[in-house]
Inverse folding.
């Protein structure tokens, strides 16, 4: 048997974005040895692409006056369309202000309150506000969708970038080891305990074994399952695949996929919600506003699921702008002025100049909803401990912790990475205190051997010669066309059927390259079956959920059904030979501090949980 490198540590963090680094900081500060694994140098993680801000109820700016965790909690629950775990949402809202100030203490350059009068825009109209002298220098905030107060703390429109650099400095200060340009391809476990991971060195192609008392999955979302996504090429669901392939760990709410209203056309790069929060408007082919007609109260600042649906509806009504890349709408920030755009929306300015060749100070930005976020993830409890395997944890977008339910509010993602990272990191430190585990060399060697055999079969084309890139494109097209913003049972059934056929093809992939060294074709080939399993979980979970809730909008079941579907999907892949996941369900929340009701935006019929008419019960 070939030899392989072995590393041993207390905590192994798979993923070195904001959630992974914040967990690592908590564990290292408690005295535990920690290793961070990353596909890229940590400061190039997808977290750095987050632009708009991080929600926390500080209430320092005049438009956030009176804000508190209670209001933040209520906004989060309503945003989730009552699909979140309210115990977790409460924990999050209470901790967020502490986490924001802690980041400031570590050097985060938050934008601050400037006392005196200034102007702001809402719905394209200019208003005046006055900041109090006693709040001068406190952390300020901007408006974001679905919120009752201005609470999104920010640094211009590069908040993820500055958060990541600040946190990475802390990682270095604490001596956390970072192994970059590596990818975890499977978990090592004995059926009860997670013991680490098999990892591929992306430079040399060689395999390593990382053994750990605790393992964290913090690999971000799986947006690259879709053709049109704001996600980086890193977000292919690698961590989710590792968890699902154990047959013991479920994916929570796989059907909960968020589309962001403003991906630029044709590249799908995100322009921040901060554009609309700062007063930008959406325009149609006639350069007329429409969100104020559909949503008179919130307009452009309704929640993302609602705005995305109205945008697609408006395009279907013939009001889209024709282009070689399909119909789109316009985002207008021209009225915000040169100073505001180049200071507080400078990344948007640079993206438009570099990728579209337009000047947003004077020109409209072509936008269309694109896949953006997965509320789905490795299902965990409130401590971040994954279901099914002791010693396995998850945090950030990779997890279904589940504070987002069926729709995430803008600004709550960056907040979750820092807040959940803080909480889960502390819980992992408590778990590690006095915890011991036995690493059996035979078990580890067998795990590495299995993955080495997978690689050899791909290189030798033992199972076939299917083109992995063609299979990925077929999967992405299927999800994009039939499991998108609007869904219907017939389309979902066809998607499931077609994805099963594509999944069968994925088992016959063979490399065209030699598979040696730094080889992206091999990297994708190792993941493609897992990506198809995830895609089938998304489509099948959506097919079986016969209601509309948040981002999950079904034309054939338009009502939110609290009577039958106030629960969470748990998708297991229990047998490698299966071509469908096993779906189980659990109650959506152990407590209902805020009983189900109307969100205050978005139009939908609600079947009350108190309705005693006969209906299908799920879990």
């Amino acid at each position: 048997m070939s030899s392989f490198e072995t590393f041993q540590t207390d905590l192994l963090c798979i993923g070195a974005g904001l959630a992974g680094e914040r967990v690592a900081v908590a564990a290292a500060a408690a005295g535990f040895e920690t290793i961070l694994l990353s596909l890229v140098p940590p400061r190039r993680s997808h977290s750095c692409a987050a632009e708009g801000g991080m929600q926390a109820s500080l209430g320092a700016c005049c438009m956030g006056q009176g804000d508190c965790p209670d209001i933040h909690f209520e906004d989060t629950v309503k945003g989730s369309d009552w699909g979140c775990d309210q115990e977790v949402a409460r924990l999050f809202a209470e901790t967020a202000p502490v986490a924001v100030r802690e980041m400031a203490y570590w050097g985060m350059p938050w934008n601050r309150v400037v006392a005196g009068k200034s102007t702001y825009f809402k719905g394209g109209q200019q208003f005046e506000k006055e900041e109090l002298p006693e709040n001068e220098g406190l952390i300020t905030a901007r408006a974001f969708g679905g919120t009752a107060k201005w609470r999104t703390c920010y640094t211009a429109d590069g908040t993820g970038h500055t958060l990541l650099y600040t946190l990475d400095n802390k990682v270095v200060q604490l001596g956390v080891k970072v192994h970059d340009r590596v990818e975890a391809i499977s978990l090592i476990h004995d059926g009860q305990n997670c013991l680490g991971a098999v990892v591929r060195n992306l430079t040399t192609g060689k395999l390593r074994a990382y053994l750990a008392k605790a393992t964290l999955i913090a690999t971000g979302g799986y947006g690259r399952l879709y053709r049109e996504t704001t996600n980086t090429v890193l977000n292919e669901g690698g961590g989710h695949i590792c968890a699902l392939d154990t047959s013991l760990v479920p994916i929570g709410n796989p059907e909960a996929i968020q589309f962001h209203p403003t991906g630029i056309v044709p590249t799908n790069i995100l322009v921040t919600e901060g554009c609309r929060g700062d007063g930008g408007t959406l325009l149609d082919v006639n350069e007329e506003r429409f969100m104020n007609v559909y949503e008179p109260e919130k307009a452009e600042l309704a929640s993302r699921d609602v705005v995305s649906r109205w945008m697609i509806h408006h395009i279907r009504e013939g009001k889209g702008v024709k282009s070689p890349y399909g119909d789109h709408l316009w985002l207008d920030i021209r009225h915000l002025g040169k100073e505001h755009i180049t200071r507080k929306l400078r990344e948007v300015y640079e993206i438009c100049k570099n990728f579209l060749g337009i000047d947003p100070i004077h020109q409209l930005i072509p936008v269309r909803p694109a896949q953006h976020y997965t509320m789905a993830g490795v299902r965990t409890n409130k401590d971040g401990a994954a279901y099914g395997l002791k010693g396995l944890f998850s945090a950030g977008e990779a997890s279904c912790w589940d504070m987002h339910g069926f729709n995430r509010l803008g600004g709550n993602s960056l907040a979750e990475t820092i807040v959940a990272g803080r909480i889960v990191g502390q819980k992992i430190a408590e778990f590690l205190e006095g915890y011991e585990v036995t690493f059996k060399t035979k078990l580890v060697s067998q795990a590495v051997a299995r993955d080495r055999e997978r690689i050899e079969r791909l290189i030798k084309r033992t199972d076939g010669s299917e083109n992995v890139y063609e299979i990925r494109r077929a999967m992405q097209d299927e999800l994009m066309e039939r499991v998108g913003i609007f869904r219907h049972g017939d389309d979902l059934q066809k998607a499931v059927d077609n994805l099963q056929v594509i999944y069968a093809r994925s088992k016959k992939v063979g490399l065209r390259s030699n598979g040696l060294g730094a080889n992206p074709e091999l990297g994708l080939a190792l993941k493609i079956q897992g990506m198809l399993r995830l895609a089938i979980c998304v489509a099948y979970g959506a097919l079986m959920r016969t209601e509309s809730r948040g981002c999950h909008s079904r034309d054939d079941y338009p009502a939110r059904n609290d009577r039958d579907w106030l629960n969470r999907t748990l998708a297991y892949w229990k047998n490698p030979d299966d071509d469908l996941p096993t779906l189980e369900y659990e109650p959506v929340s152990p407590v209902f501090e805020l009983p189900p009701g109307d969100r205050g935006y978005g139009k939908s019929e609600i079947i009350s949980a108190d309705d005693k008419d006969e209906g299908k019960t799920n879990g």
